[in-house]
Each structure stands twice: as C-alpha cells, then as structure tokens.
Design a protein that fits this description.
522 residues; mainly alpha; 3 strands; 2% strand; transmembrane; transmembrane helix; EmrB-like; membrane
Amino acid sequence: MSQSVVLDKEAAPAAGGRLRGHPWLTLLTVAVGVMMVALDGTVVAIANPAIQQDLHASPADIQWVTSGYLLALAVFLITAGKIGDRFGHKTTFLVGAVGFAATSAAIGFAGSIQQVILFRVLQGLFGALLQPAALGLLRGAFPADKLNMAIGIWGGVIGASTAAGPIVGGLLVEHVNWESVFFINIPVGVIALVLGLLILKDVRAENAAKSFDVPGIVLLSGAMFMLVWGIIKAPTWGWADPATLLFLGGALLALVFFAIWQKYAKEPLIPLSLFRSVPLSAGTLLMVLMAFAFFGGIFFVTFYLQNVHGMAPVDAGVHLLPMTGMMIVGAPVAGFLIGKIGPRIPIVAGMLFTTAAMLGMSTLDIHSGNGVMALWFVLMGLGLSPVMVGATEVIVGNAPLELSGVAGGLQQAAMQVGGSLGTAVLGAVMASKVTGVLPGNWQAATGGPLPAGPDGEQLKQAAQLGIAPPNAPQGIADAVHSSFVSGMGVAFVVASIVALAAAGLGLLTKRGANETGPAVHI
C-alpha cells in the first residue's frame, strides 16, 4: 500500500551532498538517542544494589526504581507515538532526548529513594517520546527492502549500549558512586540533540490524525497503572484482599471501556482496525510475553551475582557480557535473515532458545560456576535478538504509514507492559517462595526458629534480595542465599513457560503487509 509522506520545509534541500535526511545518518542519530534508554536499563540494574544500600530502600522500593520507569514508558508510549504522528517525529525525538538527559541529571542529584522513583517515572515519560519517534523516522527514511537491515543494525547498536551499561555502570558504581551512572546520559543526550538538529528530516503522513483521543488516553493509562500497581502490591496486601481485587478489577473494567470507546471516538488512540491483522496482534502479544520472561527474570540476576556470589558491580557487568554481546551480534544478523526468509522461523527459533536459557537459569545454585552461567547467558542473547527485530518488523510493517508512530508506540508499550508485569509477577512468585523456604533453611542452619516480629520480617525482605545478615556465619549466609536461589529458580521456571507460549505465537507472524516504501514528496 503506497503512502504519501510530508517532510518539513526547512529540510527541503535536495539530498546531493547534504547530510539532512540521509538514511544511514538518520539511523546513527536515532540510535544515539535511543541508546540512552538501553544504556539506562542495564546501568540501573547494576546500580540497584548500591541505591538500595545507600538510600535504605525496601525491596518494594527498589522494584519501583525499575517498575516505575517501565510503567511510565508503558502508559505513555502509545500517546507519544500519536504525538509523533501529529507533530512530526523529529520534534518529538528531540524533546525526548533533551528531557531524558535532564531527568537523568535530576536522579543523580536526588537525596531519597522517593525522589529517585519520581524522577525515574519522569525519565520514563521522556523515554517514551524517543522510541516510537525513532521507529517512525527509520520507516520514513529507508525503502522497504532495507528497513529490516536498518532495524537490525539499530537493534545491534542498542545491544552494544546494553552491553556497555553493566561495564560502565559497574566501574562508576565501584570507583565513583551510583549517582554517576545517571550523569553519563547527559553527554549522550547532547550528542543526540546536535545530530538531530543537523541530520534528521521530519517525516509524517499527510492523513495523520489532527486531534488527540483524551478519553482514550485516560482510560488506557488508568488501566495499565491499576493493573501493574495491583500486581506489585498483591504480595503485601494478599491476592484475595479487597484492595488487590479492586485494582485488578478496575484495570479490567477500564480496558473494556477503552475498547468500547475506541469504536466511537472520532480519531481513536488505537484504531481497533489495526488488530484485524492477525500478524500484528500476534506480534504485539509476543512482545508482551517476551518482555515478561526477559525483564522479569533478569531482574534477579544482578542480585544473584552481587549478593550471592559476592561480585563487585563491575564483575557482575562483565558476567552479563555473554548475553549482551550475543545481542550485538545477533540483531544485525537477525535483520538480514528476516529480510531473506521472513520473521516467522527466526522468531520461533529465538523463543525456543530463550525458553531453554530460562530453564537453564532455573538450575543455578549458590555454587554455580562462571562457565554454566555464561552458557545460559549466551543462549538467551542469541534467542532474544531475532525476536526483538522480528516482532518490531511484524508490528510496524503491518500498520499503515499514517499510524507508524502509534505502531512504534504499540511495539514499545507491549515490551514495557510485559517488563512491568514480569518484574511484578515474578517478583511476587519469588517473594512467596523465599518466604516459604527461609524458615526451614534457617532452622537447619541454626537449630532454632527464624526470629519473630520485625526482625524476622526484615530477614525475609533481605533474603528476597539475596542479602545475608552482616558478618553472619557461613551456614546462615548459605541458608539465606539458598532461599534466594530457590525463589529465583521458581521465577525462571515460570518465565520459561511464558517464553514457550511466545514461541507458539511466533507461528502466527509474517512479513509486514504495508512494507512498501513511502512515496516521499519534498
């Protein structure tokens, strides 16, 4: 289906010898911007233990450092995509880059865990502006026959920044402080701004929406907030508690009303006609399940490496390199393969590799060696690459060009919702298992019961992060660490089941039906 695209007038000069609008330089620019988002994810994972100790954060608080950011992304991504479709992806991208860098600086200056969480939420909102705008700019800059490769290289660059995050973050946490891991986003943001002003050419469809579906935004945002909040609080409140049921039921009701409203809205936030495409629907749900398994499972790995194995932050970052390194290599290769044979086979194979990696991670214990861990990390990195590239192609390629921003937002929202739910659900599974096995392990190690009252609760909360009491005898430390690993093992088993379900969904995917290159009018 041919689409007409309007470019901004200040970008109008012909391409001969000019940088503005060059496809590969556009790819470089958007990769630098989105690099901040990818870098931030792994940097924060490494910094979480230091933040927890320095600010005396509870396990729930430290989960919100991750979940609050992911939730803000999830809530705002589709709206951000609509903003890009309406006002142009270039402007949206530049605002996102500047805001992300500014909120990163604010996190570095924060003096309490509450401030960190607040600014992480704001950071997530600006990150939401960046990601669908980047995909919209790529789709407008590249012809159809090169789009898969561009997305693959883009994914590889993001993988490289993901790989650099643990190393850079580990070095900064170990030799400077945790605040410095957020300050590194400032120069990256400045580079993205300068490149964006010099290179990016705004691309938007002529028939893009001219207004915003405010009721739809409110309903969808409220639904996602209530869903994730209810799941995160359920372990504390109890799954059958009226408050838990109120939030989960409210989320379901808001989603129902959202779907009904989309049928009658003049310019709906998410036109339901998008989901008439089975591949697009399957690709969206696939992203949810993939992110559920990956983000939910990987949340515990940094605590396992640092608190159970006693690694320094930089050492923990080095141990994650086999996974992120494989993502660097795998993303461009996946883009090439998908361009040749379509997304279905690479996606299904990738999710089967991820399932095997998750099952392997569930077998780790407190004495597992580096070789065993590296094997599962390599397999996970190889498995995730074709899924991220392929599902992106399926979702964005099966949407009409005037909804490219919404499709990009939908793809990223699916990933962030899945990540938030995965962190919350698997965190609840983990907490339940640790709480169940810790008293028995403690009894076996000490010959006495786990302390009652606040002291016992504090021990349980620390065990959920793999933290043994200071200067504890080896037997007690092993009891705490074994309890943590038991919980992590159950969480990874659940993640593997979700990953296997995602592999089944991959069978429903196919190459984008709307991939034909846009007819560009300058």
